[in-house]
Amino acid sequence: MPSHKPKSSKPRGGVPKAKVGKLVGKAVEAAAKKPKKRIPAPPVTRNNDLPEFVLKIKRKPSYKKGPFDRKVRALQKLSDEGKLFKQANPLDKDPELTKAYRERVRQAIFAKYWPPGGTATAEGKAMAEKLLARLDRVDADHVWDPQLGGPDTVDNLRFLDSHTNQDMGSEIWQKIRNLPDGTPIRIEVIP
């Protein structure tokens, strides 16, 4: 019975596969894992010469009511004050800002409920574990979304349910992405 193995290690075309040394291979792997840095667009300001865009937001059944209501109230207030507009993308956001915000809250939980030196009570440890588990389910959300002209600063951050935050942010982006930069935006909540 004839063998079905190839007669040589050369692939079709007769050219052998290039060998990569360990050093080059590691460099290629590291480069592939390294995130590509996007160059942010220059920021813009609200352009009142452009027609106002009405951004309609409706609570999806998957959103938690309390977090959604807080987020929408904040956006409506900013909208009523005439502060919302489409910011140029990609945004100039510092991912370390939200990481540091989360870490400061984590450290505050430990400081209050599970202090070093073995002085924590069983109740304190239980409360710390409960709050840390809750912290894992929330995102550091920009109250005034940077895509709507908000600042990327610590005082603009609050925790929000992860699903609500990410889904709302994506939905807003889908609705405004084709607008000219600087377009004034008004929020309308659909019941």
UniProtKB/TrEMBL annotation:
Keywords: Endonuclease, Hydrolase, Nuclease. Residues 1-20 are annotated as: Disordered. Residues 1-10 have a biased composition (Basic residues). It comes from the Bacteria. GO terms for molecular function: endonuclease activity. This is Endonuclease.
